Amino acid sequence: MNRRNFLMLSGAAGGSCLIPAAIARRIRDVCLGNSQPLILAPERFSFDLHAEECFGKYTLHLGDPNEEPDYPTLREFVEDKGFSPDDRRSLRDYLINWRGYDVPSEGRTSPVIDKLVTMLDDPIDGYERSHWMDWDFEMHDSPMARAYSYLLDLPLDDGENPGDFDLGSLSFIEGDRPGSNLTYVEADSLAAIASLQHRLQHRLNALQTGARIVIA
Fold it and tell me: How far, CA to CA in Å, does 88 sit from each of 18, 99, 109, 114, 126?
């Protein structure tokens, strides 16, 4: 996996562009070349999107960028992989397929299955944790991946031609290098952050809910 999709953010001198000329000019004049964004935060919002700066670009997080992962239990992990934690035959298949164990055939006592049963309600560890972090967490459950899913599902693009003011872009990234599963959205400037906030407010007014962007 290594996909990048871009959303250009711009304002128009006239017409019905999502970012009107007056606001686009203010964003351009305040943000470009300065260290502070012009974020027109909504009066009402349901949650925060955190924008964390790194080398002049901003990675978006839905939730605290530093939150600890909420690791599933081994029982949940086994079920998610299509095995039954309440069936010894299924647990034997799990150990063979996921841990590479040479487990005795059904009908014989197996201490390794007995030990697995005692661990089912503990948080995952070892190989299972590494797999979950590399796949489930980085692709779906991390604050970055949640921001990706949230923004990808929103109608942020009005479908019109680019406007007169280039205000930056958002990059929707799935895998930033070979072997990586990191899934995130990156804004290339403070102007892009400010423009995104305006678009969020514009699109979500009718829903009476939305996000406030906070520079982390």
Answer: 58, 15, 10, 9, 21
